[in-house]
Amino acid sequence: MGIFSRQSTSETSASDGKETTGLGETILRASLADANLLIMTAAERGIPLDEDVTRAIFDTEDAMNKNMMTPAITNGFWQAYERLSHSLSPITVSSIRATRDLRQLKSGVWGYVQGKMHIPFSRKCAFRYQLLSILTLLSLITLQVFWAIGNTLVADIREQSNRIIVLKTQINNADSASHRTPTDGLPQRTVTGTETDDTTTDTSNNIPVTTSAALSDTQELNRQIDEYISWREAEFIELRNWNHQWGTVLFFTAQTWEKPDYSDLTDEEKIHVHYVSAQYVLYAISAYFLPILYGLLGASFFVLRQLPKDIEGLTFSMNSHIDYSLRITQGPLAGIMASFFFTTTPATLHTLTTQSSAIATIKIGSSSLSDFSPLAIAFLAGYSVELIFYVIDKIISAITTRAASTSTKLASQPQPQTKVVTAAKAGTKPDM
Length: 432
What we know:
By secondary structure, the protein is an all-alpha fold.
């Protein structure tokens, strides 16, 4: 068994040596191709190179083709390759391969066909990011228009309801005033025989005139009420259709107007159901969906702004693609986090008689941020994710500093000393 074991060990070591030798030769040949690619790029870009560097690379290639490689030639190649990479930095071999398709360098008809059929990786990524930006923009516009229509309908219905209430109050005041006689509240006077009947008749004739004027005002107010009611009913029909549009998206749950007991409600109750449901949806869109889309749009805008610079400078590589993909993922997260950190969206619901408006305010005080709307802040957060990271780091630093200072104060406080109880008491002697 020992003979076989030694024999197998020797065979394994021999095969490992062959694999190592083959791997080193493969790496060297690939590095020579990369070095030629760097030299070609330097010539295209007008980047000056040291003559010793290019000579060492070409000598290594010639020795490789003639099977005359020596350790000194290999050492000289790697030193020249290091100097060559430093001269073209930040351009690398991976960025060159990602920016231009090397199949276009092949000669012949087949090389020409391959060059036309295949496009560089950078152009593929640029097309993907461009498509993503267009889809994000279209989705944002659609959702923004949908939100604007619903918000306008809700505001108009509330306004019409408030006008109706004001007009009804005026009618009630006019009715109460018409029921009072003109002599109410005046001192009574005794009619003597010397007064003519004409005086009495003239006084009594003033009452019908006043009553007719009040009746005319009441009719005008009722006409206005009917007009506002008709406008509110028309807007309510549009609001109901608007609710049905988003209700069809939530197919996994039945809405209130889709339940059997909805038909038992009064018309006023149905209006309130759709009114409150619309406010819930508007709040969800403004607090969650729109910040996410604005954050994604900001991240896409950053990528589309930076990507042409990388392609022009031949610095785009697979690592750049990974960074941009992570940036696209961070954009929506930054947008939604900005809506939580920087703004506070009121969650209160308005009734049909509420005239107050809900406006988002800046929570973390800053003169530069207070001038922007919440959605603008979400866009800026997606464009510059570092802003959110900065805020989070500041908050964590403030909390940890406060906790450390509190623990330091507690540690520096003197501990209460316990009194030593001695055996001696007043008037007694200790036991011996």
